[in-house]
Amino acid sequence: MGVLSPEGSLESFEPATAVLTVSAPEALVQGALADMRIAQGGVHHAWEHLRSGALKVVLYDIHHPGRYEMLLQYPHRTLMAPRVRVTADYLLEVFEHDSSLHVPLAGLRTFAT
Q1: What are residue 11's DSSP bridge partners?
Q2: Average pLDDT over the chain, rounded to whole?
Q3: Cα separation of 72 and 52, whole Å?
Q4: Phi-psi region of 96 (alpha: psi -120 to 50; beta: other; left: phi over 0)
Q5: What is d(CA 19, CA 5) in angstroms, rounded to the nearest whole number?
Q6: By CB neighbour count within 10 A (0-12 exposed, 13-18 middle, 19+ buried), where does 64 fall?
Q7: Strand partners, 10
Q8: Distance in angstroms (rounded) separating the CA atoms of residues 88 and 41
Q9: pTM (predicted TM-score)
């Protein structure tokens, strides 16, 4: 991995092996809050802590926001039970209006160290 130095040269570094591996992305944020150093997690998980000042963004210039996707599997539309359609519609509505899932990535620079 490389980072540009203030002088404009490329500095290389190899990150150390992860000390903590978790399956829940929320646990990464909790680890960072518990002073376990740098965590790489979804912005939407850390957003409230960034806004409060408890966490900072590091390596902003090489940040890759990734993609936030969710998959809902169900039988073919012609065989879809009404309860499945209602559930899918409900989830889409809730996620559309959940502001924590719509974080302005351009605003992350405000929280960079």
Answers
A1: 3
A2: 80
A3: 33
A4: alpha
A5: 26
A6: exposed
A7: 4
A8: 26
A9: 0.60
Show the DSSP H helices in 10-81 as ranges: 25-33, 43-52
CA torsion sign for 23, 28, 30, 34 is positive
Residue extents of the structural domains in the chain: 2-111
What are the structure tokens assigned to 6, written together? 């203030």
Band of residue 4 on the pLDDT scale cut at 50, 70, 90: low
Q: What is the CA 100 to chain-centroid distance, rounded?
A: 10
Q: Is there a contact between 33 and 54 (Cβ–Cβ < 8 Å)?
A: yes
Can you give the pLDDT at residue 106? Answer: 75
Helix, strand, coil: what percent of the chain each, to 5?
45, 5, 50
**Token code pair at residue 29:** 């944020």
Beta-bridged to residue 4, according to DSSP, are 10
Kindly give the residue spans of alpha helices, DSSP state H, lying in the chain.
25-33, 43-52, 82-97
